[in-house]
Structure formats: structure tokens, C-alpha cells
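COURSE: Structural Biology Practicum
ASSIGNMENT: Worksheet 4, Part C
STUDENT ID: 0417
INSTRUCTIONS: Below are two proteins. For each, the amino acid sequence is given first, followed by its C-alpha cell string. Answer the questions at the end about the second protein only.

PROTEIN I
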Amino acid sequence: MSEAPFVPPVFLSICLTKQLPVLPCILFTQLTLFCSKSTHHLYPVRWIQMTPSTVCFGARDDSYGFFRTAKAGNIITFKLTYKSGYVTCHSSNPSYQSKWGCLWNRLIPNQMATLITDKNRNLLLPKSDFLSDYWGCKFYSLPWATTESPQLLFDNFSTPLAVETKQEFQIWYSEDLFKWGYGNNGYEKTLGLQYFVLS
């Protein structure tokens, strides 16, 4: 095995002394090592493009986007990069348009509504820790992202998700997935996709 990339001593200390179960995922954008929650060992990781690398999805009428893994591995999280377009929970009001959710501030300050599911529409990310229920629909806020962030880096799986080559995942707008108040939703957006995998 090649020499492991440099890790600042403070992060290495956190991992080895078990002061935290896992390094905060916001740090993974700068590091190339992953601290396992179960073993407290450091593992090399890398970003891999999805297939296709660019996907579009909408906000109503089952207009989800789908993608597949390029290779088998253990996924830590997903990252979406904004390309073009927008989504909205109210197509007649331009002020509600956003990259990742809906700017209807009467609900929550950062009403994120972009979700990752498996091919059977089971919600995978974000985890329940970040989700808020609103009349049967789910929205969320992330400390490191807003509805207008250029990238949406999801929280980490509690345990890396084992996947096969060409395993399908879906991207949904929350109201479209849960069939709640989506009649006045609209528009479509395009984004790039990557997943963070243990090497």
C-alpha cells in the first residue's frame, strides 16, 4: 500500500483516542482519510463520479433523477454539484425558487428538500437526525449548506453503505416523493453527482 496522505495530528488524535465516533463530514472535503466509527482506524477514501455524471430532476409528477454506481465499494456519503435550473414548491412565486429546496420561510429557515433514496424509494440521506416532519412531508437543514449552496454534501452514513457496480439510486424533491402539496411545484434542475468511497 502506498504511503497514506498526511493527516493533521489533531484529527489523528481524535480518531485514535475515540473522542469522537467519526470525523465531522464537513472535514472530508479537505481530507483523504476516513475514521471508521466501529474500528477507529483511518482508511483512504476518494470521490468517484456516478453514471451518468450529470442528472436532472424535477419537483412534481414523479420526476426524480436516477443514477448508478460506477463500481462496487463502501459509500460514505454523496455530493451533488449544481449545474443549472432550479426547483420550487410554488411555481407562481419566483421568490420560492432555489437550488436544493424551497424558500418558503414560514416553515424552517433553510428548507432543504433534495433527498437520496434507493431504487425502491426508501430514504437514505439525509439521516433522520437532520429531518423535520411537516404534515407527512420531510424537510431538513444542514449546518454546512443552504438552499443556495453550489454543492450539497450530505451527512455520512452511520456505517459505510456497501454497493454493487451499477446499483441504482434516486434523487427526489421531498414533496414529490411524499406526495404532499406538490400540485403547484415546478421546474427542473441539473446537477453533477459523486460518491465518497473507501478505497
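PROTEIN II
(use this one for the questions)
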Amino acid sequence: MRFHNYLLVLSFAATQLTGAVVFGQQVASATMQPDCLSDEPDSLQISWVQPCEEGDWLLDTQAGCRMWDWHPDPKDRGVWNGTCPGGKKDGRGVVQWFEHGQPIDRFEGTFRNGRREGFGRYVWTSEASFEGHYVNDVPNGFGTATLLGESFSGTWKNGCFSNDSRVVAIGVARSSCAAVPAQAEHKGKAAF
């Protein structure tokens, strides 16, 4: 009888432990899911933890340049009007993205070896843009992001901007911006 009680207690403990592990895995996977809203246009889907979808390379057949697209679709394409040595954008120019046949994102500036480098202006929508200095494909140095009527101007570091409790990330996960010093000017009303 004592052995039977021991088995019951052991079985109960194993069940509880298994349930706790499964619950922990579900919580962990839930926190790693991208916070992309499915009703937003593809070009506006934003996640602070990971890309919203798997990406793929598109080819501008006229320029012979490869360009990355997070939302590949047979109708998607990018058009680059600059030089393209070795299949990568290089020098000053404009890249215009088309999604489902419609123009979306546009970048005017300088590329080095396929990455944004130097001064540039990236426009996502009429209410979302970044103008400033890029290093290694992300904002770095002085720049201004305009998001839904708010401006965030100041020094960016590795794609991150911080002002008090507000953090803006462009081209990187927001979690990578934890230690960015506040050297900024913010104009607007909404809270992030």
C-alpha cells in the first residue's frame, strides 16, 4: 500500500512538472512571436522582435542587382537606378520597391557593397520616413525619423534612437536598443 501511494505521488508530481514545462514553452514561444498585424499592408508590418515573414532575394533584371524583400510575391520587385558592380547596389541612386504591382518604399541615397552607407532618405509612407546618416545599412549618426506626425531627431546608434522612455528602432530589433544613450530631440504628442 505504501508503495502504491508513493507511485501516485510520483505520478502526480511528474504530471505537474510536465504541465509546467509545456506552459513555460508556450509562454516563451508566445513572447517570441512577431507583433505583426495581418490587416496591415505588407510594407507596414513591423515587429520589434523578428521579421514578420520569411524574406527572399528579388532581382532587378534591368540593372542586374539583387535586393532583399521581406514579403516576396511574384508581383514584387525593386528597381534601382544606380550602378550595380558584382550584383550589388553601389554609389548614389534611388531604389523604388513595388509590392503587388504598387509603389511602396523608396530610398534615395548612397549604397556601398549593397548596403546603405552615408546620407540617405527612406520613405515608407507619406507619414513615415527617415532622413539621415546610415552605416552598415542602418541609421547611425544624426538623423530624423518622422512617424505618424511625430519627429525623432538626434544621434542614432546602430539603428536605435532613444529619448527618455521612448525607443525607435529602424532595421534592427527594438530589444537591441536597450543601452542607447538619450541624445535626442522629440517633437510630438503620442506615447510609444
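ANSWER KEY EXCERPT:
Q1: Confidence is low (pLDDT under 50) at residues 12-53, 188-192.
Q2: The helical segments are 2-32.
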